Amino acid sequence: MSRWRSPWQLLLTRSWSRASLDEKLRAVPFIRSVEEVMSAYNQHHRSIFSYRPSRAPLLRENFLPFWAVFCIVHVEVISAELGFIRSHPVYNFRTKRYESRTSVVYKPYTWTSESSPKWTASFQPASHLSMQIYASFEYPRGYVNGIRSGDTFNGAQRLTSEMVEDVHRLGRMRGLEEFRMRPSEALDMAKEAILSDAKEEARMRLKVQYGADDIGFVDLRLQYLSFSMSPIYVPVFIFEGRYLGETVLTFIHGCTLAVGGQRLYNAPVVAIAGATVAAFAAAVLGGGGLPTADVILTRMLLPAAAVGFLLAFVYPLVALKVRNWFRASEERTHVQRMWDKAMWHEEYVRAFGTWKVGSGQEQAHREQARDKGRQGFDWSSFGQKETSVKRDPKGYYATLGLPPGASEKEIKSAFRSLALKHHPDRFLDEREKRQAKTRFQKITAAYEVLRDANKRKVYDETGQG
């Protein structure tokens, strides 16, 4: 039998729905070479003030789990404090005169539902990095977040055995980290980020609309018109080095080469820089003349060098301890609850890509949402048009693990992967061989229809084939 275990076997410890996970899970493939990744690693630690944690760091390839969050939110300002700069006289007892001083005077404003500033905002992973949520607690979130960019999820596709079993470059299988954060918890994190972003947007809009100089407290009403989440594996090269007995990690995205992780500082260089700054300050601010060499050495250069050395030497360890403490605290908060089947069966958990219905259709739904006011709309309406056109009555697309209307290239790739995995000759046990034969025949029958462009067209339009 194949030595690769499918994602649902690797990730889940309970009796999850295999079809549900297979339908929704996506992964971005590794496309960067080891040489490119090593170059990015060296560039990240190349600064004159940086210190490489190890000359020969341990390198491994892992798929790290992420939740991709998509939201359309209607924002309404309820109340706010508008600040305006005002001049007022203040008596100066030293000069015995009134002098003009400026300060910001805040005035509370409250709007009715009809007059309040309101708008509809779309939050997507490509434009809002806070919608890319690391779905585990194995590594400090702040370090992993460094690999996020607008292209983090570009090229996402179905996770296959070949993507995990590739041992040609590093000589071992890639790691597949467990999804340990529930979608509801990731959604709570996304909502916090959305609220923060909405408040900043509200401050900008109020400044422009009312000519305010500053905005104080802002109270908003958020209505989530639609939201969707997708589980995605992100390819990451993980460099593991040592520093004073502690493990120091550097994360590099397997496609974009975005880098995250802890930076170390070259303590001697920082000490010399600190001493140089102290000497320069002494020369410029010496006042009544330059200090003696003894004073410069004992009271300026040595203390500045010592402080710089200690900060550069100790700060990385303190930062690592603090981040690990936050990671452990977050893990205790999120993972105390037991998982259940709702993990993948939540209605808003969808395969990555199904949310992207096109800018024109998205704009139409925004206008529809504005017309409805606070009523909102059903998220399922986004996919009704496409579903009604692209059907799969005989389950041919589902058999190959593809959505209706998949391309010819996707069909061929899926068939090759499934045929290799389920070919009867790969099994020794007779019962398993019979089961594999049945699956293989079903896969072949689906492929015979979908590989032919004419047959596939008839099947897509009429459901016959």
UniProtKB/TrEMBL annotation:
Keyword Protein transport part of the UniProt annotation: no
InterPro entries (alphabetical): DjlA_DnaK_co-chaperone (IPR050817), DnaJ_domain (IPR001623), DnaJ_domain_CS (IPR018253), J_dom_sf (IPR036869)
Coiled coil: none
Membrane-spanning intervals of the chain: 64-85, 269-290, 296-318
PANTHER family: CO-CHAPERONE PROTEIN DJLA (PTHR24074)
Keyword Lipid biosynthesis found: no
Pfam families noted in UniProt: DnaJ
Residues annotated as domain J: 395-463
Keywords: Membrane, Transmembrane, Transmembrane helix
The name this protein goes by in its record: J domain-containing protein
